[in-house]
Design a protein that fits this description.
rod-shaped
C-alpha cells in the first residue's frame, strides 16, 4: 500500500507523513538485493577474459531464468 492511503486510513491530516512513518516499517531487502547484484556485476568487470573461448556448462549461461536476470541487471 502507498503511504498516502495509509495516512488517509489513519485519519492523518499533514501531508509530510511524519506521524504515518511511525506506523510503517520499511523493507530494505529489495534495495539490499539490487545493491548486491550491482556490486557483483561491477566486480565481474575486473576479471581477466580468457584468451581462448572455452566451452562451459555454467548454469547462468544455460538457464533462461538466470539469463533474464542478467539481462535485467544490465538494462537497468
Amino acid at each position: 500500500m502507498d503511504k498516502d492511503s495509509i495516512a488517509e486510513a489513519l485519519n492523518h491530516v499533514g501531508g509530510d507523513h511524519k506521524i504515518t512513518d511511525i506506523y510503517i516499517e520499511k523493507d530494505w531487502s529489495i534495495v539490499d538485493k539490487v545493491q548486491a547484484a550491482v556490486m557483483k556485476f561491477f566486480r565481474g568487470l575486473n576479471k581477466p577474459k580468457p584468451s581462448k573461448p572455452q566451452k562451459t556448462k555454467n548454469k547462468e549461461l544455460s538457464d533462461p531464468i538466470e539469463h533474464r536476470k542478467t539481462m535485467r541487471l544490465v538494462s537497468a
